[in-house]
Specification:
With 78 residues, the chain is mostly helical. It is built from three helices and no strands. It has a domain of 48 residues.
Length: 78
């Protein structure tokens, strides 16, 4: 009925290591700055809601540029 092409089952070690490093850097870039802003605002002012709103805002602004950030990190790792 359908003849699907076989998928590539072997991935080189170099590609796998690069994938892990780029993914780790992206996770740190997406999570650590908003978390730091949230905790900084919460600990300095005691405003939980304000810290959460600004932290989420920064998180989604960073996510808007995720494609560009990923390309830059991938080029750097190459």
């Amino acid at each position: 009925m359908f003849n699907f092409p076989k998928k590539k089952t072997q991935v080189s070690t170099e590609v796998l290591i690069r994938f892990i490093w780029v993914s780790s850097f992206l996770a740190m870039i997406f999570a650590l700055p908003p978390l730091g802003i949230f905790l900084g605002i919460y600990l300095l002012t005691g405003e939980l809601i304000l810290g959460a709103i600004i932290g989420f805002g920064v998180h989604f602004v960073i996510l808007a540029f995720s494609g560009r950030i990923s390309k830059i990190i991938t080029q750097f790792m190459s």
